[in-house]
């Protein structure tokens, strides 16, 4: 998924919330009050017409399975944001961290927004995944922030300072995001898997030196059929290049993204043209041009085969978009018009359950909880369509479907 809209939201929000978050972080750190004294959040109303959750199958013993959701923790009070995470029942939460924001000048750190988020997450008993992106402009001769630093050691130093400051509060770190796309990896050297692996190697070494318990996840690629070598490289081909460059020695888990399109999680790419929906779907991609990138199942199984089962997968972003209550979509996201809210809810739950059954997925992070009420509206912001609450903050059907599913996963007393 494109990070540009996310970065736009964050950029506008920073000026409004940075001071507030700095004060919040300090206040929580100083406070000795009990958790019950934290400001309460109104419990969302039950969502209508939620599908019955799938009955979880026995968890494979050979691999842990960590379930979570990505939030927009840079906007709003983290106490409210994380309370909703707990209301759904997620034990893990993911936040994307803009390095460029938190180290605006070499060795000058501004933790304001992130500080309160991490402290509240610890107090609430949540495990945290951080996804590191955007190198500061000072670290790049070419300027701009949408690319890697010239010196991987600069990222290593940032990670060391971050981990030392919040030791024990960070449980997993994803090193970069969709680096097979030019918009995320802007450099005159182009899209070179070996360059990414060099950055990953240095970051992995720094993270493990500070806290060997932290799970290091390779940057998830963007599933794409574009393979021009300039704007994008097909994710299967890029991942094979990462394997050839030795990345498996520098990751505990292989990062994966997939954002469902308009077919369910069980559909293989080659099966889509035979579906009944192929006759009526407005968005034709999966049906007229079969490719693994349209298919959740084909993408995950393809990654597993490419790494030859050497490391588990961490799906750090997945979901299905629906615009049922809005009726409008940003350009390029017309597939959301084909998905009902009931399908969104059912496919999310089914995807979680399939990943448990397959046994090679160690982490599954839903995209997303709350970008709808914090975004720019469904006609401009594609992130809104994936959210499990609507633009008013009212739960969509997926919200209560997940509550039921996650409750069913809990061991019997």
Written account of the structure:
The structure is a single chain. The protein has about 425 residues and is an alpha/beta fold. It has a single domain, classed as Glycosidases (TIM Barrel), CATH 3.20.20.80. About 35% of the residues lie in helices and about 10% in strands. The chain contains 13 helices and eight strands. Strands 5-4-3-2-1-8-7-6 form an eight-stranded parallel β-sheet. Strand 3, helix 5 and strand 4 form a beta-alpha-beta unit. Helix 6 (about 195-210) packs across helix 7 (about 235-245). The longest helix has 27 residues, at about 5-30. The chain starts with a helix and ends with a helix. The model is unreliable at about 5 and about 10-60 (pLDDT under 50).
């Amino acid at each position: 998924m494109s990070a540009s809209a996310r970065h736009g939201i964050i950029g506008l929000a920073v000026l409004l919330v940075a001071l507030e978050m700095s004060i919040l972080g300090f206040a929580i750190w100083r406070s000795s009050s009990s958790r019950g004294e934290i400001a309460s959040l109104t419990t969302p109303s039950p969502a209508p017409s939620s599908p019955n959750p799938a009955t979880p199958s026995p968890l494979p013993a050979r691999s842990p399975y960590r379930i979570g959701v990505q939030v927009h923790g840079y906007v709003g009070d983290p106490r409210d944001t994380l309370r909703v995470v707990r209301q759904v029942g997620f034990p893990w939460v993911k936040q994307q961290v803009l390095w460029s924001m938190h180290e605006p000048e070499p060795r000058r750190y501004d933790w304001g927004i992130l500080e309160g988020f991490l402290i509240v997450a610890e107090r609430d008993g949540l495990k945290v995944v951080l996804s590191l992106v955007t190198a500061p402009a000072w670290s790049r001769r070419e300027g701009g922030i949408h690319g890697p630093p010239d010196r991987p050691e600069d990222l290593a130093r940032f990670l060391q300072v971050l981990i030392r400051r919040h030791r024990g509060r960070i449980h997993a770190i994803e090193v970069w995001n969709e680096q097979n796309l030019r918009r995320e990896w802007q450099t005159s050297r182009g899209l070179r898997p070996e360059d990414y692996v060099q950055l990953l190697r240095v970051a992995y070494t720094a993270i493990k030196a500070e806290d060997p318990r932290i799970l290091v996840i390779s940057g998830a690629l963007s599933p794409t059929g574009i393979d021009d070598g300039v704007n994008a490289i097909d994710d299967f081909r890029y991942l094979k290049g990462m394997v050839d460059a030795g990345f498996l020695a520098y990751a505990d888990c292989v990062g994966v993204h997939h954002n469902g399109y308009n077919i369910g999680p069980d559909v293989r790419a080659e099966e889509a043209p035979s579906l009944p929906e192929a006759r009526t779907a407005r968005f034709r991609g999966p049906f007229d041009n079969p490719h693994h990138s349209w298919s959740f199942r084909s993408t995950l199984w393809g990654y597993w085969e490419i790494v030859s089962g050497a490391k588990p997968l961490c799906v750090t972003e997945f979901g299905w978009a629906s615009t049922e209550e809005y009726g409008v979509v940003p350009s390029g996201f017309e597939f959301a018009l084909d998905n009902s809210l009931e399908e969104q809810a059912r496919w999310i739950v089914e995807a979680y359950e399939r990943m448990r059954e397959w046994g090679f997925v160690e982490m599954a992070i839903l995209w997303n909880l709350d970008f709808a009420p914090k975004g720019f509206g469904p006609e401009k912001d594609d992130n809104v369509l994936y959210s499990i609450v609507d633009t008013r903050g009212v739960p969509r059907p997926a919200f209560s479907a997940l509550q039921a599913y996650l409750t069913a996963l809990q061991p019997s007393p």
